[in-house]
Design goal:
Shape: globular
Distance between the termini: 66 Å
Number of helices: 23
GO molecular function, one term: transferase activity
Number of strands: 20
Keywords: Transferase
Helix content: 25-40%
Pfam family, one: Glyco_trans_1_4
CATH superfamily of one domain: Glycogen Phosphorylase B
Structural class: alpha/beta
Organism: Actinomyces oris
Protein name: Glycosyl transferase family 1
Length: about 800
């Protein structure tokens, strides 16, 4: 943007009438929006990007080709380097202590799926890699306290400047280290190793032995996580079939210091103060959103609950950490019994996950090797044959609340990393980077699955991601059922966000095998896609907003045989006054003439790239050049992505449209509907936008892009039960074409008779197919098919409440 004072003055003089959020239509703020559409300038620091339509926040760090995080560490000054070995060593080899447990920050390749703060719809929440651990306060030089292995003996205490003592392990967000031993109680110390000469590369065409695992590289990552080098975690060799250890009595343990009393924290709204969670008919499982964030999905859930007062509900709210919004913004109705909040951040569940160690498995080496191969075999069975039970059996044994052992501790063993090296495809990644990805996956699975969940007859998940994963596990634990609702195709949108593609592009279940992506991207693609395949089969029913979504979900592992279309809905009577005003306005237009009337267009959405406002501004310029008498009002939050908002303001000024476009910001749209003649939706991604239904309820025609359910809402023929049919109420176009948008708007506003037909159809269509009372009745029916309401009926038969 030009920095000239005159240009800035023009920007500041724009007819911007912005009001603070006051129950307006658009969702609450999120830091940024999905990439791939609009401005994507170079950035050197961390970038926060909102996933599809508020689907969660994805953070990338550094440039695309930079080396990645903790796996790339510069040696400390004066510290000797250890050359990589060519094969795993059988005997423990001591390594020199380094000056610091932490490694310097390095530019990192994109780390996809890292959540910093949940967006309104809250989808796609995932876990970051840890930052370099900071040194903790000094302890006794003879004992180090590891969050993975307990307390172990350190290197020789007589350290000098050339052989400094390893600092104590910090209590940080660490992960298990690969472990090749059983009881780390031996003292390890050695002189600096001399670097070996690099081996000559084999001649062209010569066969090479299989690549050995560079254990020092994996040790670097693991030591970065646990702050203790493998050289200080070694011990005596154990026999293959030695009896599994009974416990960790051999470990030296520091006396525990009393923890300071925590300040009394205010519980999130709706969480029971006594910690008692009553059984409910339906537990709504949300990734962020309701009831602590405003947005389209939250509004739909609130309507479902208030529209089914005969059922009791609980809310399982999955969010990032305890700093997330936890204030009820909706005024939860009385039939919500409780809210249960689960956090994904490892900072919120350090005690179990971060302190788990291989010894807690109570397994010897042979058993650990068998478990490792069983885990990897279950993953391959899912990916290759679609078999879900082997993996779910492991989840029940080692991850769920009823687990018998902490399966995530296996990641800290050499047996697991060797099995991974032998069994899994080569992704062109170092074992260090693989370790970090696997550590993220284990920690996320733990966060979602390990905590006990209150009992419900039906767990109603609103995404196929973590919400559905939790819902399936809870239903298996309690012997009840799980229902899935897809507002958008979560897996498709998350993968497209990961790859910075347009969100309307299709994704198939096997694409992670064939796409030209990095190894890290391939692992994250597999994580999301196979999570969907793991969960889809367990829903007794799946609801979608429009028929085409069922076909698209089939390509991701969905089951069309259990799919039902239940659209969003509105209370049409709430728009009677606006509709009456529209009919009167049509009569005035007829008298005035289409060419004399000032046609007021309205854009109602967040000002973010995915909603296509820049395209709409270009369309307005084209229409003005054609001599059309129009004005565009922009309604919706402008603060979600300030850089994009500024870009839009710049475009308005550059196009000379200051008098033609008014930016209103967040307003109460329903009160303004009588002012507008035509609703324009230039979006690149939608589910079933409630704003489309609301403008239709007011009799306002539309020109909209073909995204999500928009075509079925606006254009597809509707046939009612009594045989009445309703034709289109607008025109559908492909996204990303400002010229076509201008053409179709001109077509509608140049023909008053066409405009009147579209207006009448708009009201008729929403009354026939999108009435909220009918929508809520559909949900009540499907809830009862899953067993909801049975407990209340049994209590009534017994004379209870």
């Amino acid at each position: 943007m030009s920095s000239s004072s005159s240009f800035r003055a023009r920007l500041e003089s724009l007819p911007l009438r912005y009001s603070a959020p006051a129950g307006g239509y658009a969702p609450m703020p999120s830091p940024d929006d999905a990439p791939g559409i609009g401005d994507r300038g170079e950035e050197t620091g961390p970038r926060i990007k909102v996933g599809p339509d508020g689907y969660g926040v994805v953070v990338t760090t550094g440039g695309a080709g930079a080396p990645s995080g903790p796996s790339v560490a510069a040696p400390s000054a004066g510290s000797p380097t250890v050359p990589p070995t060519t094969e795993p060593v059988a005997e423990p080899v001591a390594e020199p202590a380094t000056a610091s447990a932490s490694t310097p920050e390095n530019p990192a390749a994109p780390i996809y799926g890292v959540v910093q703060a949940p967006a309104p719809a809250g989808y796609g929440l995932v876990q970051p890699r840890p930052k370099s651990p900071e040194s903790a306060s000094p302890q006794s030089p003879d004992v180090l306290d590891s969050p993975i292995f307990g307390a172990v003996s350190s290197a020789a205490s007589g350290a000098s400047a050339s052989s400094p003592v390893e600092p104590a392990a910090p209590r940080s967000a660490a992960s298990p280290a690969p472990d090749d031993v059983e009881a780390p109680d031996a003292t390890a110390a050695s002189a600096p190793s001399e670097p070996s000469e690099p081996s000559e590369p084999p001649a062209h065409g010569e066969s090479q032995a299989p690549t050995a695992i560079a254990w020092e590289s994996v040790a670097s990552a693991a030591s970065h996580a646990s702050a203790i080098p493998l050289s200080q975690q070694t011990a005596q060799e154990e026999a293959e079939d030695e009896e599994a250890p009974a416990g960790a009595a051999e470990l030296i343990r520091l006396p525990e210091e009393p923890e300071p009393e925590a300040d009394d924290q205010v519980l999130p709204d709706g969480v029971p103060e006594d910690g008692v969670y009553a059984d409910v008919d339906v537990a709504i499982v949300m990734e962020s959103t309701y009831p602590y964030l405003k947005g389209g999905v939250s509004a739909v859930v609130h309507d479902i609950i208030t529209g089914n007062p005969d059922l009791t509900f609980g809310i399982i709210h999955i969010t990032w950490d305890s700093r997330s919004p936890l204030k009820d913004l909706y005024g939860m109705p009385d039939n919500i019994a409780w809210v249960k909040v689960l956090y994904l951040s490892m900072e919120e569940h350090q005690e179990d996950f971060l302190r788990a160690r291989p010894r807690d498995l109570r397994m010897n080496r042979r058993q650990r090797r068998e478990l490792s191969r069983r885990i990897l075999g279950a993953l391959l069975a899912l990916a290759q044959d679609g078999q879900t039970e082997p993996l779910w059996d492991l989840i029940s044994e080692g991850l769920s609340a009823s687990r018998r052992y902490p399966v995530w501790a296996i990641l800290g063993t050499r047996e697991f990393m060797e099995a991974y090296h032998d069994m899994m495809p080569d992704l062109g990644m170092s074992m260090t980077d693989i370790f970090w990805c696997l550590r993220d996956f284990f920690s996320l699975a733990y966060a979602v699955l390990a905590e006990p969940v209150p009992r419900a007859q039906v767990y109603h998940a609103h995404t196929t991601g973590y919400a559905m994963l939790l819902g399936v596990n809870a239903a298996r634990e309690h012997g009840t059922k799980v229902l899935l609702t897809e507002h958008n195709l979560y897996v498709r949108d998350t993968v497209n966000t990961l790859l910075e593609r347009r969100l309307d592009l299709n994704v198939r279940l096997t694409d992670y095998r064939t796409f030209d992506v990095t190894g890290r991207e391939r692992m994250w693609m597999a994580w999301w896609l196979e999570m969907g395949r793991l969960c889809y089969p367990y829903a007794y029913a799946s609801t979608y907003l429009y028929p085409r979504a069922i076909t698209e979900a089939n390509e991701l592992g969905g089951d069309s045989g259990r799919a039902i279309v239940i659209p969003n809905g509105i209370v049409t009577s709430e728009f009677d006054a606006s509709y009456a005003a529209r009919l009167a306005a049509i009569e005035e237009i007829k008298k005035e003439g289409a060419d004399k009337h000032l046609w007021k267009l309205v854009y109602i959405a967040r000002v973010v790239p995915i909603k296509g406002l820049l395209d709409m501004i270009d369309s307005v310029r084209l229409m003005v050049d054609r001599g059309l008498n129009i004005h565009l009002d922009v309604c919706g939050p402008t603060e979600h992505m300030p850089s994009y908002f500024e870009q839009c303001l710049t475009r308005i000024v550059e196009q000379g449209l200051e008098s033609v476009i008014t930016v209103r910001g967040t307003v109460k749209v329903r009160e303004l509907l009588p002012e507008f003649d035509l609703f324009v939706l230039p979006s690149y991604n939608e589910g079933l936008p409630v704003v489309s239904l609301e403008t239709m309820g007011a009799g306002i025609p539309t020109v909209s892009t073909d995204v999500g359910a928009v075509r079925s809402v606006v254009e597809d023929m509707i046939v009612t039960d009594d045989g009445q049919t309703w034709d289109p109420c607008g025109i559908i176009i492909e996204p990303g074409d400002p010229t076509v948008m201008a053409d179709k708007v001109q077509e509608v506003i140049s023909d008053v008779d066409l405009y009147e037909r579209l207006s009448l159809n708009a009201r008729g269509r929403v009354e026939a197919a999108y009435d909220l009372v009918k929508v809520n009745a559909s949900y009540n029916k499907i809830y009862r098919q899953g067993g909801a309401g049975e407990q209340a009926g049994a209590r009534a038969d017994q004379g209870g409440a």
